[in-house]
Amino acid sequence: MHRAAHGKREWRVLISLAAALAGAPLVPAAADRVPDGPIARSAGAPSRLVLRSLNFPAGGTIAVSQVYDGAGCRGGNISPGLSWAAPPPGTRSFAVMMFDPDAPGAGWWHWAVFDIPAAVRALRSGAGTAASHSLPSGAIQVRNDWGSVGYGGPCPPPGPPHHYRLMLYALRVPKLGLGADATPAQVAARARASALAQAQIVAIYGR
Known about the structure:
Blueprint lengths: L1 H22 L14 H6 L6 E3 L29 E4 L7 E8 L7 E10 L4 E2 L16 E2 L20 E10 L12 H10 L1 E11 L2
Antiparallel strand pairs: 1-2, 2-5, 3-4, 3-7, 4-6, 7-8
């Protein structure tokens, strides 16, 4: 009788233990846990790369000083002054592009400069004029769609204002492997393929 009672108690303990385990949450092994802390939070965090310009206002109208001088337009054709901050780790150079996607056909390239050293954080106003020799050492400009080397400002046909995209790429390579004979489209393709982050300003101009 004593043995039977003891066996029943053991059986009840086993049943209770099994029920408790069945209702308990599973705890993954350390190697299978989702990481937490700064590494997990930064893994999907957007880049903090910021592009600024005092004379290329985001959402505003481009000043006459930056407008092309020719083709029916009368402007200063001076490239805007730029500054940027917080490039991602691993940035080894920068590229700057200016593009009008509203132009007929495939759009219009106004500026393409690349191989800007990683330590640089600004381009002075007018740096896009080839004769100014104001670009950082090692930086290269190519011909814009106006046919001149360096910056060529907005001059859309009469009608609705066009949107001009001024883009900065933080690149994982020190050099894009292109020369001054490259096209802006080639520069853009290489820059996008090597980009760690991108920032842009969009401004408008019409006549």
